[in-house]
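TA notes, week 10

Several of you asked for a full example with nothing omitted. So below is the full record: structure tokens for the whole chain, then the designed sequence directly under it. When grading your own attempts, check the secondary structure regions first.
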């Protein structure tokens, strides 16, 4: 190994050490913030808030070291991947520190620690979040891509748990608890963001170690119509054919017909499009967890209020006014244009 290579490795290891120190400090800040909420320890909350200042200074120091490394060594291949990962992770750790500060500021506004179901939910959600964060830090420290992959998977499970927390908070009608409920709502939201950033740390570790890029997100879309014998199945057929890698598509109706419209079947067969749906499906068949998994619900007839009393917290909605056209070709063209627009909005141009 040449003198320059030895110097490069030494400088890169120094930056990694700073990064690990920063990650451990941030994880400790989140841990203290959660404990401050659980115990209503205002002194711990304020100490954690003030402790964010050294974290911010350290973030700027790491940033300077990274840019200096680039200027001196002009890195390539493995060192460049590691440095790129550190730069992005450094910003995300700084955000996690900010989330810990927000949790602490909410803690001191509360009249006491959470009680009952919310206390148990906080213990469970914070436990999973801190586990994710600690494991993501260890994966980065050890260069362990497999640990990073395993930790990354926790985030999806946690997101669904958060939906249940939000619903429980919304269902609480005790006016005396409104201020505390708003505070705990913010606490859970910040914990969710910590988990999201921990997932990103895992992605950076995987990239630094293996060069593997973060896979593009696959979106779940649900198309709703009244009888589910024409519009919904047509939308699924178009989306599945045009954007098979970008989404998972399903459809349901409020009052489903007995079978698919014969005109639809004939039209799709003539175009060589497969009919993935087994037949009209009732919206009532969809379970609550299935609805929570949907990133986007598209109403092809009417409005969302015609179908659902409550929309899952993380689900978006679009309402497409397709008119009363009976001609299948006209419906096909209208739907194809709308689906193309929404998938490019979600995934960008060139979505497949």
């Amino acid at each position: 190994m040449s003198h320059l290579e030895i110097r490069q490795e030494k400088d890169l290891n120094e930056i990694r050490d700073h990064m690990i120190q920063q990650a451990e400090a941030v994880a400790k800040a989140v841990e203290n913030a959660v404990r401050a909420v659980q115990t209503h320890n205002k002194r711990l909350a304020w100490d954690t808030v003030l402790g964010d200042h050294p974290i911010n200074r350290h973030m700027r120091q790491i940033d300077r070291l990274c840019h200096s490394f680039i200027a001196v060594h002009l890195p390539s291949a493995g060192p460049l991947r590691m440095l790129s990962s550190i730069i992005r992770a450094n910003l995300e750790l700084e955000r996690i520190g900010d989330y810990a500060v927000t949790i602490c500021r909410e803690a001191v506004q509360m009249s006491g620690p959470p009680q009952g179901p919310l206390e148990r939910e906080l213990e469970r959600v914070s436990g999973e979040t801190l586990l994710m964060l600690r494991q993501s830090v260890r994966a980065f420290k050890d260069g362990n891509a497999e640990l990073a992959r395993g930790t990354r998977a926790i985030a999806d499970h946690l997101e669904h748990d958060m939906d249940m927390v939000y619903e429980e908070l919304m269902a609480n009608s005790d006016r005396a608890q409104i201020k505390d409920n708003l505070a705990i709502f913010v606490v859970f939201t910040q914990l969710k963001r910590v988990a999201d950033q921990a997932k990103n740390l895992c992605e950076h570790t995987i990239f630094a170690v293996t060069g593997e890029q973060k896979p593009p997100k696959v979106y779940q879309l649900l198309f709703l119509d009244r009888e589910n014998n024409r519009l919904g199945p047509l939308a699924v057929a178009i989306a599945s054919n045009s954007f098979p890698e970008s989404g998972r598509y399903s459809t349901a109706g409020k009052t489903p017909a007995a079978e698919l419209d014969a005109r639809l079947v004939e039209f799709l067969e003539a175009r060589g499009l497969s009919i993935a749906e087994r037949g009209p499906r009732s919206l009532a068949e969809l379970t609550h967890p299935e609805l929570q998994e949907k990133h986007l619900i598209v109403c092809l007839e009417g409005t969302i209020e015609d179908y659902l009393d409550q929309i899952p917290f993380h689900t978006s909605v679009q309402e497409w006014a397709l008119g009363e056209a009976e001609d299948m070709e006209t419906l096909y063209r209208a739907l194809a244009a709308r689906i193309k627009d929404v998938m490019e909005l979600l995934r960008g141009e060139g979505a497949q």
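The CA atoms of residues 116 and 307 lie 33 Å apart. Use that as a sanity check on your answer.
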